[in-house]
Amino acid sequence: MPSIDAFADRLLSYLDNDQVNLVRRAYFYAEQAHDGQRRRSGEAYVTHPLAVANILADMHMDHQSLMAAMLHDVIEDTGIAKEALNTQFGETVAELVDGVSKLTQMNFETKAEAQAENFQKMAMAMARDIRVILVKLADRLHNMRTLEVLSGEKRRRIAKETLEIYAPIANRLGMHSMRIEFEDLGFKAMYPMRSERIRAAVRRARGNRKEIVNKIEESLTHCLTREGLEGEVLGREKHIYGIYQKMRGKRKAFNEIMDVYAFRIVVDKVDTCYRVLGAVHNLYKPLPGRFKDYIAIPKANGYQSLHTTLFGMHGVPIEIQIRTREMEEMANNGIAAHWLYKSNEVDQPKGTHARARQWVKGVLEMQQRAGNSLEFIESVKIDLFPDEVYVFTPKGRIMELPKGSTAVDFAYAVHTDVGNTCIACRINRRLAPLSQALESGSTVEIVSAPGARPNPAWLNFVVTGKARTHIRHALKLQRRSESISLGERLLNKVLTSFNSHLDKLVPERVQAVLGEYRQEVIEDLLEDIGLGNRMAYVVARRLLASDGEQLPCAEGPLAIRGTEGLVLSYAKCCTPIPGDPIVGHLSAGKGMVVHLDSCRNIGEIRHNPEKCIQLSWAKDVVGEFNVELRIELEHQRGLIALLAGSVNAADGNIEKISMDERDGRISVVQLVVSVHDRVHLARVIKKLRALKGVMRITRARA
Ligand code: MN
């Protein structure tokens, strides 16, 4: 393991002095923080972060990533807070370390295997900065390289997780070299015997094959020279895990796999790739159906190459990959290749994300040129810049939701009933507002209550169609039952003044009227009345068949109980409260709106029995009613606290407060207070009057 000095020297090949010194500082900070801690191998703990930084330096990662690598276990293992890192090393590095810690804390082991893919996505979604993933991958790589010192069970757990989560992530990011190493190390830890057997077989086969490999290589090189093409011919072997998968998945014998000879030809430019292809197809006969042009149509992770299989001498199959040096670099390092060759770019906090984006953009453009399906965009773009959030249910199931989703969306995604009866939520075990947008990696728990109902206000913040549809549907049902009950009361009111009642009506007559109105059941008619679409007065006369007769017009007012629900609302213009003389205005489709008897807005229709109905407050009316007060008072310090204190002392509740300064001396305060009724309001006002400097209190009316 090289020392920090040797490491720093190495960094000077691509970082400047100041940056290298920052990396050094991070190292010494970590050394101190981990002081006394040892790795399982007995080495000082700090050798691990240093090794992780080394892996990242191989990819020419920037100094901030290297600093984060040095510090990556500090939050998790030494109890130093993110804020401390923020002060010491700046926000970017602190964020990176925090991101890596969060990934480390995510516990994959307890979750179902089938969810591995979701986990990959979740990990990606959690990392706002792609460097978090790269540091985490390097961390995992070093842990895999030093896995042997761990106990069998722990070793297998980490290996499994590596195969299921980290190798696929490396693959998605096009980091072939890292993926191969993850797979071989993971396989070795999971199945040491199988791995060793294949390894030994490969070693043996290598000896036997040597002669043929050399011959083919020679003839390929010769062929290129003859055609005047420049290219490097490399023999290549399948990696151990790859062989294993082929044996299992395709049920092939080891010999069958090893009978294939594989080569790679790396050339200078794309044009040469195709010319080399022509040359080798001329040299040996190609196997039909095996040619693949991943240059024109790249793989989902941006991999580009030409693949072909040839019949060599004596019918030996030869697999050939042809690609440019740049493609080779991309194939090995994927997203990290951008750091390798463009590391002298101006350093900006956004720079790295821009670079990741650039990579995605590059891959995207390749795909578009190829006219490929958009499926690929799903797999790459979404992973890096997710439009989804991934959250856990309390039992550890992962739910995928669109970005911006709230706990209510989550509740409906779990089950419609959970959504309909939800009243609160806990995010990561803490109570949180239902409207809060969820973040990837959070655990969400819904608190529900039997009989609870959806709140119309939810429609303002839910983002999923499912939640929206179900809330609307539930509200509609609720509205219907409330409309029916209000309609029934309105109709009975009128019927009573004719000395009749719904129960006393002649059924045939009721059917006839329903037919006239093209309605099937009495509930439909009552709903229509409740919603204000039909007047109870007119309907009552039809039901009693009393066309000619004039109404005695002795109907008393209808009592409002405050429990009518969605079909009854209180006018915003005059904010009536129990005790006020009131009148009901029926507006089609909206139900009844309660106004003050004296409200100017209903002045003209006040006495039209088809539009307005006389109301009274029931004795047992319930609820909180908002009323707006306008208070003029002398300006003084702590004025709002004083007002709040007085309202509170009278059991009132301030819903809203705003203040205008008149002339430095006098202030006008608009106060929306919720009260039970007029008596209660009087108590509130009395308390307010008692305040020093209060000159005038009026109830505001639009
Ligand atoms: Mn670590």
Protein model, in words:
This protein is α+β, with helices and mostly antiparallel strands. The protein has four domains: 4-190, Hypothetical protein af1432; 194-336, Beta Polymerase, domain 2, CATH 3.30.460.10; 476-617, no CATH class; 625-699, Alpha-Beta Plaits (2-Layer Sandwich), CATH 3.30.70.260. 49% of the residues lie in helices and 16% in strands. A hairpin with a 3-residue loop joins strand 14 (582-587) and strand 15. The N and C termini lie far apart (79 Å).
Low-confidence stretches: 341-353, 370-383
Report, as a whole number of angstroms, the end-to-end distance: 79 Å
Number of domains: 4
CATH class of the largest domain: Mainly Alpha
| SS elements, strand count | 20
Strand content: 15-25%
In oligomeric terms, what are we looking at? single chain
What number is the mean pLDDT? 83
Second rung of CATH, namely the architecture of the largest domain: Orthogonal Bundle
Shape: elongated
Bound molecules: manganese (II) ion
CATH homologous superfamily designation of the largest domain: Hypothetical protein af1432
Number of contiguous helices: 27
Structural class call reads alpha+beta
Question: What fraction, in percent, of the residue positions are helical?
Answer: 40-55%
The largest pleated sheet is described as: 6 strands, mixed
Return the CATH topology of the largest domain: Hypothetical protein af1432
